[in-house]
Amino acid sequence: DIQMTQSPSSLSASVGDRVTITCRASQAISRNLNWFQQKPRKAPKLLIYAASTLQNGVPSRFSGSGSGTDFTLIISGLQPEDSATYYCQQSFMTPPTFGLGTNLEIK
Amino acid sequence: EVQLAESGGGLVQPGGALRLSCAASGFSLMNYAMRWVRQAPGKGLQCVSAFNERDGSAYYADSVKGRFTVSRDNSKNTLYLQMNSLRAEDTAVYYCVRRMGPSYYYALDVWGHGTTVAVSS
């Protein structure tokens, strides 16, 4: 299985800040990288697919980049409702595998 | 509206069995690959089963292989996960998830609300 390494595991930031979450795959996965947001007691929500394409309805303050093994999720202009856990996930090969998550706290 | 709705979770003793259901609406399960993804309390996400819509073949995580079986009822547009010989480590919220096609890089775009399985004596 492809291993996904996500960092940091947690971070704290203020409203208006720009935050960056990184994800590294154990092998090249082209652009088959997706980002999810999960709030407590809710199902994960797809934010970005194909490394950089925003899912319908996702605010433009979310952006993604990368290809191969290294990927980045950036949230620009942090909002209180962005408090959540964020997961990267590769869809290059079955089984789909996820990073361990980044817990984002809004100060 | 495209939706997935899981049911069938509950409290079961070790060694017991449960069958989870995932009712799809707004689209046909015959046209999409599906996944069962679980999340143990306070933990991350793990795909336990992947179902291929074209030939009905399936992948199972090593931890559930030989104990879990995925199937589909086309007439009911429902996906199932039969879970036998349940263990404490199977305790989790189980999500039914739709996989998009190659144009969308196979992303997981629609998730159910999840159903909770608790294995305990």
Number of E-type strands of chain B:
11
State the end-to-end distance of chain A. Answer: 36 Å
The class by helix and strand makeup of chain B works out as mainly beta
Question: How many helices of chain A does DSSP assign?
Answer: 0
Instruction: Specify the number of helices of chain B.
Output: 0
- Unreliable spans of chain B are none
Strand content of chain B: over 45%
Q: Which range best describes the helical content of chain B: under 10%, 10-25%, 25-40%, 40-55%, 55-70% or over 70%?
A: under 10%
Q: What string, H for helix and E for strand, traces the elements of chain B in order?
A: EEEEEEEEEEE
Rounded average pLDDT of chain A: 97
Radius of gyration of chain A: 13 Å
What is the ordering of alpha helices and beta strands of chain A? EEEEEEEEEEE
What does the main sheet of chain B amount to?
Answer: 7 strands, mixed
The greatest interface here is:
A-B, 24 and 22 residues
Unreliable residue runs of chain A: none
Radius of gyration of chain B: 14 Å
Largest beta sheet of chain A, briefly?
7 strands, mixed
How does this structure look, described?
The complex is a heterodimer of chains A (107) and B (121). Chain A is mainly beta and 107 residues long. Chain A contains no helices and eleven strands. In chain A, strands 2, 4, 5, 6, 9, 10 and 11 form a seven-stranded mixed sheet that branches. A four-stranded antiparallel sheet of chain A has the order 1-3-8-7, with no helix packed on it. In chain A, strand 7 (62-67) and strand 8 form a beta hairpin. Chain A is globular, with a radius of gyration of 13 Å. The N and C termini of chain A lie far apart (36 Å). In chain A, 36% of the residues are buried. With 121 residues, chain B is mainly beta. Chain B is built from no helices and eleven strands. In chain B, the strands form two sheets. In chain B, strands 2, 4, 5, 6, 9, 10 and 11 form a seven-stranded mixed sheet that branches. Chain B is globular and about 45 Å long. Chain A binds chain B through residues 31-32, 34, 36, 43-46, 49-51, 55, 87, 89, 91-92, 94-101, and chain B through 35, 37, 44-47, 50, 59, 61, 95, 99-100, 104-109, 111-114.
